[in-house]
Amino acid sequence: MSRILPAAAALIGAVALTLGTGAASAERAVSIPAALQDAPKTPGLQTAILAGGCFWGMEAVFEHIKGVRDVTSGYAGGSADTASYEQVSTETTGHAEAIRVIYDPAQVSYATLLRVYFSVAHNPTELNRQGPDSGPSYRSAIFPQNAVQKSVAAAYISQLGKTGAFGGPIVTRIEGGKFYPAEDYHQNFFARNPNHPYIMRFDKPKLAAFKLAFAPIAR
User: Fold this and answer.
1) Could you say which of 54, 71, 153, 182 is catalytic?
2) Is 54 annotated in the active site?
Protein backbone atom coordinates (compact mmCIF):
# COMPACT_ATOMS: atom_id res chain seq x y z
CA MET A 1 0.00 0.00 0.00
CA SER A 2 1.78 3.04 -1.27
CA ARG A 3 0.80 5.47 1.42
CA ILE A 4 3.14 4.01 4.05
CA LEU A 5 6.20 2.97 2.04
CA PRO A 6 9.14 5.07 3.36
CA ALA A 7 10.44 6.12 -0.06
CA ALA A 8 6.99 7.09 -1.26
CA ALA A 9 6.29 8.95 1.96
CA ALA A 10 9.47 10.94 1.60
CA LEU A 11 8.58 11.88 -1.97
CA ILE A 12 5.04 12.86 -1.01
CA GLY A 13 6.40 14.86 1.89
CA ALA A 14 8.68 16.81 -0.43
CA VAL A 15 5.76 17.55 -2.74
CA ALA A 16 3.61 18.65 0.20
CA LEU A 17 6.29 21.01 1.44
CA THR A 18 6.70 22.44 -2.05
CA LEU A 19 2.97 23.04 -2.35
CA GLY A 20 2.75 24.50 1.14
CA THR A 21 -0.58 25.98 2.13
CA GLY A 22 -1.62 26.11 -1.52
CA ALA A 23 -2.13 22.33 -1.45
CA ALA A 24 -5.66 22.87 -0.17
CA SER A 25 -6.64 24.30 -3.53
CA ALA A 26 -5.54 21.16 -5.36
CA GLU A 27 -8.86 19.44 -4.77
CA ARG A 28 -12.37 20.67 -5.24
CA ALA A 29 -15.83 19.26 -4.78
CA VAL A 30 -17.66 18.19 -7.92
CA SER A 31 -20.92 20.09 -8.28
CA ILE A 32 -23.71 17.52 -8.23
CA PRO A 33 -27.45 17.72 -7.47
CA ALA A 34 -29.05 16.39 -4.33
CA ALA A 35 -30.58 12.95 -4.59
CA LEU A 36 -34.18 12.79 -5.74
CA GLN A 37 -34.79 9.84 -3.44
CA ASP A 38 -33.92 9.62 0.26
CA ALA A 39 -34.38 7.38 3.26
CA PRO A 40 -37.09 8.38 5.77
CA LYS A 41 -36.12 10.21 8.96
CA THR A 42 -36.65 7.29 11.30
CA PRO A 43 -36.02 7.77 15.03
CA GLY A 44 -32.71 6.71 16.50
CA LEU A 45 -29.24 6.52 15.06
CA GLN A 46 -28.55 4.87 11.70
CA THR A 47 -25.48 3.32 10.08
CA ALA A 48 -23.91 3.88 6.66
CA ILE A 49 -20.92 1.95 5.33
CA LEU A 50 -18.94 3.45 2.48
CA ALA A 51 -15.70 2.55 0.71
CA GLY A 52 -13.72 5.02 -1.37
CA GLY A 53 -9.98 4.56 -1.15
CA CYS A 54 -7.80 5.15 1.89
CA PHE A 55 -10.02 5.24 4.95
CA TRP A 56 -7.94 7.97 6.61
CA GLY A 57 -9.32 10.71 4.37
CA MET A 58 -12.82 9.26 4.20
CA GLU A 59 -12.97 9.17 7.98
CA ALA A 60 -11.73 12.77 8.27
CA VAL A 61 -14.37 14.14 5.91
CA PHE A 62 -17.32 12.35 7.48
CA GLU A 63 -16.23 13.21 11.02
CA HIS A 64 -16.81 16.86 10.09
CA ILE A 65 -20.45 16.47 9.04
CA LYS A 66 -23.08 17.80 11.42
CA GLY A 67 -25.29 14.98 12.63
CA VAL A 68 -22.58 12.33 12.34
CA ARG A 69 -21.96 10.85 15.77
CA ASP A 70 -19.10 8.45 15.09
CA VAL A 71 -16.88 7.26 12.24
CA THR A 72 -14.84 4.06 12.34
CA SER A 73 -12.25 2.96 9.81
CA GLY A 74 -12.34 -0.68 8.82
CA TYR A 75 -12.80 -3.35 6.20
CA ALA A 76 -15.90 -4.56 4.36
CA GLY A 77 -16.66 -7.14 1.70
CA GLY A 78 -14.52 -10.02 2.94
CA SER A 79 -14.56 -12.43 5.85
CA ALA A 80 -13.73 -11.91 9.52
CA ASP A 81 -10.57 -14.01 9.41
CA THR A 82 -8.95 -11.77 6.79
CA ALA A 83 -10.02 -8.40 8.21
CA SER A 84 -6.57 -7.12 9.08
CA TYR A 85 -4.40 -4.45 7.44
CA GLU A 86 -1.64 -6.93 6.67
CA GLN A 87 -3.98 -9.35 4.90
CA VAL A 88 -6.13 -6.75 3.14
CA SER A 89 -2.91 -5.23 1.77
CA THR A 90 -2.34 -8.42 -0.25
CA GLU A 91 -5.38 -7.44 -2.38
CA THR A 92 -6.66 -11.03 -2.22
CA THR A 93 -9.22 -10.89 0.60
CA GLY A 94 -12.20 -9.25 -1.13
CA HIS A 95 -12.19 -6.51 1.49
CA ALA A 96 -12.36 -2.81 0.73
CA GLU A 97 -11.04 -0.16 3.07
CA ALA A 98 -14.27 1.36 4.35
CA ILE A 99 -15.78 3.55 7.03
CA ARG A 100 -18.76 2.97 9.28
CA VAL A 101 -20.71 6.17 9.82
CA ILE A 102 -23.14 6.41 12.73
CA TYR A 103 -25.48 9.33 12.09
CA ASP A 104 -28.68 10.95 13.30
CA PRO A 105 -31.17 11.01 10.39
CA ALA A 106 -33.00 13.87 12.10
CA GLN A 107 -29.89 16.01 11.47
CA VAL A 108 -28.38 14.60 8.29
CA SER A 109 -29.97 12.29 5.78
CA TYR A 110 -28.55 9.21 4.10
CA ALA A 111 -28.82 10.93 0.73
CA THR A 112 -26.80 13.88 2.02
CA LEU A 113 -24.07 11.52 3.17
CA LEU A 114 -24.04 10.02 -0.32
CA ARG A 115 -23.82 13.48 -1.88
CA VAL A 116 -20.68 14.22 0.15
CA TYR A 117 -19.34 10.76 -0.69
CA PHE A 118 -19.69 11.27 -4.43
CA SER A 119 -18.86 14.97 -4.57
CA VAL A 120 -15.70 15.25 -2.52
CA ALA A 121 -14.90 12.24 -0.31
CA HIS A 122 -13.57 10.22 -3.24
CA ASN A 123 -13.55 9.92 -7.03
CA PRO A 124 -16.31 7.51 -8.13
CA THR A 125 -14.85 7.14 -11.64
CA GLU A 126 -11.62 5.45 -10.55
CA LEU A 127 -11.80 1.67 -10.83
CA ASN A 128 -10.03 -0.28 -8.09
CA ARG A 129 -7.90 2.68 -7.11
CA GLN A 130 -7.97 6.15 -5.58
CA GLY A 131 -5.23 8.64 -6.34
CA PRO A 132 -1.85 7.07 -5.57
CA ASP A 133 -3.34 3.86 -4.15
CA SER A 134 -4.27 0.95 -6.40
CA GLY A 135 -5.93 -2.40 -5.90
CA PRO A 136 -9.46 -3.69 -5.22
CA SER A 137 -9.21 -2.74 -1.55
CA TYR A 138 -9.39 0.88 -2.74
CA ARG A 139 -12.53 0.38 -4.80
CA SER A 140 -15.56 2.63 -4.76
CA ALA A 141 -18.36 0.70 -3.06
CA ILE A 142 -21.46 1.24 -0.97
CA PHE A 143 -22.59 -1.37 1.54
CA PRO A 144 -26.30 -0.67 2.21
CA GLN A 145 -27.56 -1.65 5.64
CA ASN A 146 -31.15 -2.20 4.53
CA ALA A 147 -33.36 -2.30 1.45
CA VAL A 148 -34.14 1.41 1.64
CA GLN A 149 -30.47 2.40 1.61
CA LYS A 150 -29.88 0.06 -1.32
CA SER A 151 -32.72 1.66 -3.27
CA VAL A 152 -31.52 5.19 -2.50
CA ALA A 153 -27.93 4.39 -3.47
CA ALA A 154 -28.89 2.70 -6.73
CA ALA A 155 -31.22 5.53 -7.71
CA TYR A 156 -28.59 8.17 -6.94
CA ILE A 157 -25.91 6.41 -8.97
CA SER A 158 -28.32 6.29 -11.90
CA GLN A 159 -29.29 9.94 -11.40
CA LEU A 160 -25.68 11.14 -11.25
CA GLY A 161 -24.69 9.04 -14.23
CA LYS A 162 -27.17 10.94 -16.38
CA THR A 163 -25.70 14.33 -15.39
CA GLY A 164 -22.25 13.66 -16.84
CA ALA A 165 -20.84 15.68 -13.94
CA PHE A 166 -17.79 13.45 -13.51
CA GLY A 167 -16.67 13.36 -17.12
CA GLY A 168 -16.68 9.56 -17.08
CA PRO A 169 -18.77 6.60 -15.95
CA ILE A 170 -19.40 6.03 -12.25
CA VAL A 171 -17.88 2.69 -11.23
CA THR A 172 -19.24 2.61 -7.68
CA ARG A 173 -20.51 -0.83 -6.74
CA ILE A 174 -23.34 -1.73 -4.40
CA GLU A 175 -22.24 -4.70 -2.33
CA GLY A 176 -23.15 -6.80 0.66
CA GLY A 177 -20.95 -7.92 3.51
CA LYS A 178 -20.15 -7.17 7.11
CA PHE A 179 -17.96 -4.39 8.43
CA TYR A 180 -14.94 -5.08 10.63
CA PRO A 181 -13.13 -2.27 12.50
CA ALA A 182 -9.51 -1.69 11.56
CA GLU A 183 -6.60 -1.69 13.97
CA ASP A 184 -6.49 1.02 16.63
CA TYR A 185 -3.62 2.87 14.98
CA HIS A 186 -5.82 3.57 11.94
CA GLN A 187 -8.61 5.18 13.96
CA ASN A 188 -8.74 9.00 13.92
CA PHE A 189 -5.50 8.88 11.96
CA PHE A 190 -5.99 12.32 10.40
CA ALA A 191 -6.55 14.03 13.75
CA ARG A 192 -3.66 12.23 15.46
CA ASN A 193 -1.18 12.61 12.59
CA PRO A 194 -1.88 16.00 10.97
CA ASN A 195 1.67 16.31 9.63
CA HIS A 196 1.91 12.84 8.09
CA PRO A 197 3.06 13.29 4.46
CA TYR A 198 0.08 11.39 3.03
CA ILE A 199 -2.38 13.39 5.14
CA MET A 200 -0.79 16.68 4.10
CA ARG A 201 -0.71 15.86 0.41
CA PHE A 202 -4.04 14.10 -0.12
CA ASP A 203 -6.39 14.42 2.84
CA LYS A 204 -6.03 17.99 4.06
CA PRO A 205 -6.96 19.33 0.60
CA LYS A 206 -9.93 16.98 0.55
CA LEU A 207 -11.20 18.17 3.92
CA ALA A 208 -10.69 21.81 2.91
CA ALA A 209 -12.68 21.20 -0.27
CA PHE A 210 -15.50 19.65 1.75
CA LYS A 211 -15.68 22.55 4.19
CA LEU A 212 -15.79 25.04 1.33
CA ALA A 213 -18.45 23.25 -0.73
CA PHE A 214 -20.60 21.98 2.15
CA ALA A 215 -20.25 24.82 4.66
CA PRO A 216 -23.88 24.60 5.92
CA ILE A 217 -23.39 21.01 7.13
CA ALA A 218 -19.69 21.21 8.05
CA ARG A 219 -18.38 21.54 11.59
Assistant:
1) 54
2) yes
